[in-house]
Known about the structure:
homodimer, 25 helices
Amino acid sequence: MTALRIGATAALAVAICSGQAAAQVQFQNHMMPQPSQMSIDSGGLKLDSTFAVEVSGASDACLNDAIGRAVRRIEMAAGLRHAGRGVAGTTRLVVKVSRPSAPVQSLDDDESYSLSVTSSAAEIDAATDLGAMHGLETLIQLVQPGGAGYVIPAITIHDSPRFRWRGLMIDCGRHFEPVAVIKRNIDGMAAVKLNVFHWHLTEDQGFRMQSLVYPALTAKGSDGLFYTQQDAREIVAYARARGIRVVPEFEMPGHSAAWLVAYPSLSSGTHPDEIRREFGISDTAIDPTREATYVFIGRFLTEMAAIFPDAYIHIGGDETPAPEWKTNPRIRSFMRAHGIKDNEALQAYFNTRVLAIIARLHKHMIGWDEVLTPGLPKDVVVQSWRGVDSLSKGAKLGYAGVLSAPYYLDGMKPASEHYLADPLPSSSDLSAEERKRILGGEVCMWGEHIDARTIDSRIWPRTAAIAERFWSPEGVRDVDDMYRRLGAVSIELEGLGLTHLQSEDAGLRDLAGTESIDALRTVASVLEPVSFGDRFKAQHTDQLTPLDGFVDAVRPDPPTRQWFDAAVKRFLADPTGDTADRSALAAWFITLSGAVAPAQQQIAASPRLAEVSVRANQLVELTTMGQEAMQYLTDGRKATPDWKKKQSQILDEIRNPSALVRFVILTPLSDLVRAVPE
Amino acid sequence: MTALRIGATAALAVAICSGQAAAQVQFQNHMMPQPSQMSIDSGGLKLDSTFAVEVSGASDACLNDAIGRAVRRIEMAAGLRHAGRGVAGTTRLVVKVSRPSAPVQSLDDDESYSLSVTSSAAEIDAATDLGAMHGLETLIQLVQPGGAGYVIPAITIHDSPRFRWRGLMIDCGRHFEPVAVIKRNIDGMAAVKLNVFHWHLTEDQGFRMQSLVYPALTAKGSDGLFYTQQDAREIVAYARARGIRVVPEFEMPGHSAAWLVAYPSLSSGTHPDEIRREFGISDTAIDPTREATYVFIGRFLTEMAAIFPDAYIHIGGDETPAPEWKTNPRIRSFMRAHGIKDNEALQAYFNTRVLAIIARLHKHMIGWDEVLTPGLPKDVVVQSWRGVDSLSKGAKLGYAGVLSAPYYLDGMKPASEHYLADPLPSSSDLSAEERKRILGGEVCMWGEHIDARTIDSRIWPRTAAIAERFWSPEGVRDVDDMYRRLGAVSIELEGLGLTHLQSEDAGLRDLAGTESIDALRTVASVLEPVSFGDRFKAQHTDQLTPLDGFVDAVRPDPPTRQWFDAAVKRFLADPTGDTADRSALAAWFITLSGAVAPAQQQIAASPRLAEVSVRANQLVELTTMGQEAMQYLTDGRKATPDWKKKQSQILDEIRNPSALVRFVILTPLSDLVRAVPE
């Protein structure tokens, strides 16, 4: 048996014995997140028939359904024909769970599991069904070709999460996302062992959760785009069945225009006539000074508590400038009477009142950074969008916290950057006691610029890399290896129904009005959307703007970035050698430049593509730059200072905003230029 | 004003006036189905702002929702920013409808409409909301680039369908299809003016419709995969909102194993213990001789009639060998007592009894060919899977009929073949009275080899071509022009959420385990699935076999077929000329042959792809054949008889079944070979 260090890329020859034949296979480590402990043995389990599933210990419908789904996915991956349900096969899968599944998950649940695969069986041991589900997901990721078919290599894994709170937030307020979108994203979360779906249900731009007590909330505040209570119960059950908690968020007292459209009496002064179409921070706010406000919130949250069984309710609490709190005489007089000195103190008063309601419901409150005001009770959890310092400050004050700042997907950053941001780096100055208060992290998918067609490509596969950050040991941080495994998990996620890989081509076809998009696809492969901030500045969008431009089609962090970066690094290590990288780069530049003319034809024929013309022209400059730089380096020739200066000017020009997209190849290109001797 | 003949490809220069600027644009006729009458005017409506919608005459929620959806699609297509709902824009859309929307559609509804577009407004006139919806779909298909933006060319259209019954049947019995799949297919149907969704809800392999009266039907007969009554009501409402009737089918007395699993007492003798996994015709059948049978069917259909408001209920009725009717002594004795001489007569007795139940529910019966037995009342509609002769025979006997035989999608035939099959060719010998009995046609999507991931690519875009056959005048039958427009409608359908264009790449990525599938995609582009019959013979599949092989990824009738066929025809007209086709074909052969080696690498690494290796090797032979033939023809050289003989042998060999896929380029290739002088 070979013990492996975590993070090592395992590629061991493993002998698979099956009847007479024995085949050598390379163990392919495609697991994401990486388990905390594993050791590889020789041989493996040949997948050549259906599964004979044995469940020992606790067994219930929840666990059995999870096993059934996992078995089906393994059969799909391995191309096995399922001869019939209930018919025992020859591949033994043993699942041992100590305790029956709890109807409601908790932050303290034991999610650990052990997995042992031998040539005769795969066995999963776990305290809870949650651990067993994680073990099943790992098992699926272990299926690989071997011999003439598929195998699961012999392995022993002991695995448990580094953080207890591993979340994904989806903002369904600014743009509504259909139930099917939520479900497939929950499937994706389960595949990479995330365990909290934070459902951002209300925004200035829409109230998305049906209330029977206050039906106007959706009747007036949603354009008819909302989740029925039945939908919500279905999502909660769907998530529970996959080991995922659902934490609902109802934003208050700010980000609440949709509440106020429906119930103007809640307002601190003015209220909008319809839900807000513009994005950005609004001035409207719920009035914290009236008793009726708390009667309303109390009745509403009581209704919601019956639908969302999780121990936490998220009240938002961020970005509440509330200028009317400073101008409304009644509010001013209330503040004076109660010794409330400013808006921050008034919001603290509001939070305390809402917290009392939540406590009465036997639940805990979670809110964004701004809820952390003096006197806040210590059982409130603070979700930090401001950063790791804000999170640490909270921990030192005694508050549990969840980090979100480095995991904003709409920043359109590469997976590597998110991946390396640690919620609790070993360099942190927190004490052991304080460190325990860092519960974990949450990925945030804000909704300004996404709809059902584009959301998946913004979330995936980057979120899988972040999921590894939340689950695996801190030392697992080899970026190249992460990207290698991310490529595999991305395909697995597509198999679950996520559309992150399909949506780019679909968008390009829509823009070009034809199926023939080879050239356009090539141009798109080196471009990605600009960040939320850059788009927000450059394009005046609102909720009703169609999100079907070129910027919506292209994906953040396309695989080209990583490939080109690595290929250039290797080329620069031996620029005069006749290497595979040199040939590959040369061929690639030819493909790129060859695509520009046919792409420009399509761009000219489609007004919605018109703005991309500039980028396509720039691509010609960039390929020329790359080709010339490689030529200099290969020949060992010096470039003129003019040439270098010109390249630098070109790169500067190309870094300017245009068409809401940016090139992902500029850094390696400038490395190439810089490497040319002068 | 220029009057156009239907079927003519219109490409007229149209002047678009917008403020100061006037731009020349080519009218692009992308409509499918083609309208029955149209004339093109000069100028057009520039789409430069939001819509100011005026509804005159009858106005109701159904119509308003349809208009809202259409406006949104036009805005998406034209990249218009919707500044706010309720805010009147500058593009006038006038919709005039004579009568309010009927809650339930009927076969006799007036679906005609007129559409008039000028530089100042688009106006739709229709007797019913159904006609208005068709007009809106036409309007969407008219949006095209013009000037720097988008326009709707000035046009006058008077349009009405050739047939009243234009259906698509989806078999959800053999494989269940989620509600989302049904909905997006209904969207696709509406886009091409189909008006009947025939929902095949029961099969030997599954009972998919919830009954509260007989809950075991789904509890025991569906693996938990079924539509709740709420789902069904939602689908019915969704379809009605899009001008589509829903005709439910409950198969009886054959194809009924799932009924019998749940209620064995209905059986004619034996009954299965679980739903049938194998495909093909089963021997089990409902017992037509017991009164309890009709009590059961009566209660069940009464329950269904409350969910499905359509005037028709489909009882299946096909393929009932029912050997037990010949061997069960009790059934034998009943037949003797009632003078029923054989199985056919017994089924006729059964149909008469069921018809009485349906009549009591104030509905009409429809069934497959086999229901047409002597004495069948004349108000039963016969759906013909046997062919146009069977349909004509029925019409002569006085029965109304719907043609399906030439529209079986699982035959994997090219769109052109379906397109040219006419339900009522002018050559038909039917009398005027009999011709009226041909209500229309129905496309059939049987479910043996489809799942939610692959169904769309089997249905679309081919069904759009058939929809034109059902709607447009008989004389509209230019195949090249159909394919040209099919390319555009295919992109429109993808925009509605259909996955027919995305699923091939997704399947290839899944098989290859990577995003890098350029070579594999090129190989796949010349292959299509074999017919249902060939697959059924070659591969022993059942309901539980994963449908994720190479055959499931590739699409029927890929665009390569039509492109290559046309390019070869043009090349052969001038083989020695230095034409664009010669260059394009030469370049294409190089691309194809270059893809084989990298594709073979991926095939070797993925056992599920292994069988495709043979086809990839054959592709090398085919490209060599094409290149050599072109060389002979270009040089004007003679080939040796040996060369010709060898090519013929290669083609014969390649026509043999392999890997469940077949090449779509063989006919033009053999044309090339045949053209080489000897």
